Structures are given as C-alpha cells and as structure tokens.
Amino acid sequence: MTHSLRKPLIAGNWKMHLTLTESVRLAREVLGGAPHKVDVVLCPPFTALPAVAEVLRNSPVQLGAQDMFWESHGAYTGEVSSLHLKDVGCRYVLLGHSERRRYFGETDQQLQKKIHAAVAQNLVPILCVGETLEERQAEQTFAVLERQLITALTGFNPIQLSSLVVAYEPVWAIGTGRTATPQQAQEAHRFVRELLARQWGDPLAQSVRVLYGGSVKADNIDALMAERDLDGALVGGESLKPAAFLRIVHFHA
Ligand code: 13P
C-alpha cells in the first residue's frame, strides 16, 4: 500500500495511436469516470494535445506529453519544446521512454538536459527507466537503473527534483503481456527509492512517486498496487480501452 505521503498517479501513454477525433472521445470517456483520490494523467500524441486539453479543462485529469526537446526555442526543425507543452496546457511530460531510447537513440545525458528544461518550465518530468531482458538475465537490473538515474539526475538538488516522478518500465514487460511480478516490481522500486535516498536524502526519496509500467491490466493492477513502493502505473495498451483504464484508475490496494 502506497505511503500516505504520496498520492497515487496513473498515467495513460497513448503512444502513436489515435486520431484527433478518437483522442477527444477517449479523453471524454476517461473524464466521466475518473476518481479524485488518484492523479490521472493522459498523454496523447502531440497533434491531439490542444483538443484533449480543451476536454480536460477545469477537471482533475491532467495532460501530459510523451517527449520534448531540451531547448526552449530555436532552429530545431521538427522538435517540440517545454514552452510549447506549457502553452497547450501540459502539466506532465514523459522523458526517456524505452521506445525513445531504442528507436531514437536517446541517451541518459540527453535526458539530463530534458529534465532540466522540464523543471525550469514547471513541468512534472516522468523519467522512465528499466532494464532489457538480456540485462535482467545477466543480473544487471540494479546497475542499469543506477546508471540511468544517476546520469539523468546529475547536478540537480532535492528542491529541483521535488516534483520528479520515476517510472520503472522493464523493457521485457512493455507490450508483451508479460508483467513483472509484484515482487519483482517492488524489488526494483525499493532499489530506486534507496538510491534516491542515498543521493538526495530521505525526504526527497519518500516524496518521489515511483510508477510501474509494462503490461499493466485491470486484472493485475490491484496486486501491483498492494506493494509498498508502488505509487501508481504508466499504462500503454490498456489505456486505449476506456473500461479497462477506468478499472485500473479505480484500483483496490
Ligand atoms: P504496455 O502497457 O502496452 O505494456 O506499455 C507500457 C508502456 O510502455 C507505458 O509507457
């Protein structure tokens, strides 16, 4: 059961799915059933952000983006910045999703710059970390998490990191239907929290929310959320299905 200091957060990562019309429809359906005791965040594709922002206006459901560039403006064709995200009403931004690391070569050093830009604009960064299957089999899980977190968070003080959210997403569990067991997830989450405590002190470590992502579904969310260091979930495929996503945000822990 999540520590009382930390409000649970469930985010839906819609990835490169849904048209504008489909995004608006899904946002309306989620909004109609969202609870208040949980922070719910929707991360549509960039093109749907303004329209979904309009649906969510004055509601407790928050808007997030799936990525951004680290510069605030300039000659960077094709990129979207923290200023653009603020301008359309985003409160959150996913950074370092494993699909961005894998297909677009995003590095921990680049993520450090992106987190800097997010913090400067008062956007809540959701930093995604997690090991591949090969790394887990080679017993490198903790080493990978440590490298990803320490490099991306170098140079920040606890005040700058006070809004940080970490999402532990083991790559082998993403889109595979193979969820980490609650014990595997708890072990990784506890490692993340202990690392944060060692580097930035216990008060920060106790306030940072650590989400689990990777084949989260209506029928496994309750067992995951029963673990002490799981503060929520980052949901991919199931966030596209209104009934399933609403069951997830109404988890019982
Ligand atoms: P799935 O829930 O589809 O496994 O995706 C997880 C994910 O990548 C969320 O960011």
Q: In words, what does this structure look like?
A:
It is a single chain. The protein is α/β, with parallel strands linked by helices and 253 residues long. The chain has a single domain (9-249), classed as TIM Barrel. Helices cover 41% and strands 15% of the residues. It has helices at residues 20-33, 49-56, 82-87, 98-104, 108-120, 133-137, 141-152, 182-200, 202-207, 221-225, 242-249, and strands spanning 9-13, 39-43, 62-65, 92-95, 124-129, 165-168, 209-213, 232-235. The longest helix has 19 residues, at 182-200. It is globular and about 45 Å long. The structure holds 1,3-dihydroxyacetonephosphate (13P). 1,3-dihydroxyacetonephosphate (13P) binds at residues 13, 97, 169, 174-175, 213-216, 234-238.
How many strands, what sense, and barrel or not for the largest sheet?
8 strands, parallel, barrel
Q: Indicate the low-confidence ranges by residue numbers.
A: none
Provide the domain count: 1
Instruction: Name every ligand kind in the structure.
Output: 1,3-dihydroxyacetonephosphate
Could you report the average pLDDT, rounded to the nearest whole number? 97
Strand content: 5-15%
CATH topology: TIM Barrel
Number of strands: 8
Task: Determine the structural class based on helices, strands and strand pairing.
Answer: alpha/beta
User: In angstroms, what is the radius of gyration?
Assistant: 17 Å
Q: By CATH's scheme, which homologous superfamily applies?
A: Aldolase class I
Give the topology string: H per helix, E per strand.
Answer: EHEHEHEHHEHHEHHEHEH
